[in-house]
Amino acid sequence: MDRPITTLFMLMSVDGKISTGATDDLDVDRDFPKIVGVQEGLHQYYEIEQTTDLWSLNSGRVQKKMGVNSKGMPNKSSVSFVIIDNNHLTKQGIRYFCARSKEFVLVTSTADHPAFQVNEDNLHIICQSKLSLPDALAKLKSEYGCQRITIQSGGTLNGLFLREKLFDYIDIVIAPILIGGKDTSTLIDGKSLLSESELSQLGVLKLQECMVLENSYLRLRYQVIH
Q1: pTM above the 0.90 mark?
Q2: Residue 81: which H helix or E strand, with range?
Q3: Dist. CA 66–CA 62, nearest whole Å
Q4: Is the dihedral of CA 53, 59, 2, 6 positive or negative?
Q5: Whole-angstrom Cα distance, residue 139 to residue 137?
Q6: How far is CA 172 from the centre of its chain?
Q7: CA 100 to CA 27: how far, in whole Å?
Q8: Is 163:190 a contact under the CB 8 Å cutoff?
Q9: pLDDT in tens, 130-169
Q10: How many angstroms separate the CA atoms of 191 and 217, rounded?
């Protein structure tokens, strides 16, 4: 395989939502700790997260929503981060990830992205005229030695990974809550299929493990068959 092995690792509601609403003011990381019946078991997700791959991929939009553009500098971790971003991260956000990451790789199609103004030894930029996930993943493996990577991005980017057959494993923690809302982000968003001829773009899964966690949480682990 000329790309890293990928695992989609996400926290979602029983109805597949990965946010509590349709605006950036609503977020599961901020809101679930406030909800009785959900807050009690939430720690299990973060504990499992600590066991995921030493390479992690996310989107600039999600990270902006989490406040990295205004956060203070974090401690260095052993994890290397890949962020796909065109216009959400500021210079402060870039510096935040340089401080946090073992290696930090920004994938962008913006020629004047603020990252080009930051000079850090562990900052690497993959600049593409148009986003190509297969090419970006191939470079992560060939140029930076990334063998396995955990995907924790938003529904739209997850949809691109799905349609391009770039998921190998799915690891989902399900919180005991229903959220609803047709405009609220789900595990997989993006363009919908319109014809039977497109059914090959679906992701067929084989269950590897179903774990009943504490406080009515579940963990489901799948291998992607095709």
Answers
A1: yes
A2: strand 80-84
A3: 6
A4: positive
A5: 5
A6: 12
A7: 22
A8: yes
A9: 999 999 999 999 999 999 999 999 999 999 999 999 999 9
A10: 30
Q: Is the pLDDT of residue 17 over 90?
A: yes
- Helical segments of 124-171, H only: 133-144, 155-163
Handedness of CA 22, 28, 34, 38 (dihedral sign): positive
Taking Cα atoms as reference points, which of 49, 46, 53, 38 lies closest to residue 5?
53
CB atoms within 10 A of CB 226: 8
**What is the layout of strands, in order, in the sheet containing 104-108?**
123-127, 104-108, 80-84, 55-59, 148-151, 5-12, 169-174, 218-224, 205-212
The residues near 60 (Cβ < 8 Å, ≥ 6 apart) are 83, 84, 85, 86, 87, 88, 89, 93
Asked if 3 and 168 count as a contact pair (C-beta separation under 8 A), the reply is no
Of 214, 157, 221, nearest to 9 by C-alpha is 221
Q: Has residue 1 got a pLDDT over 90? A: no
The Cα 72–Cα 87 span in angstroms is: 20
Angle at 174 between CA 170 and CA 180, to 5 degrees: 110
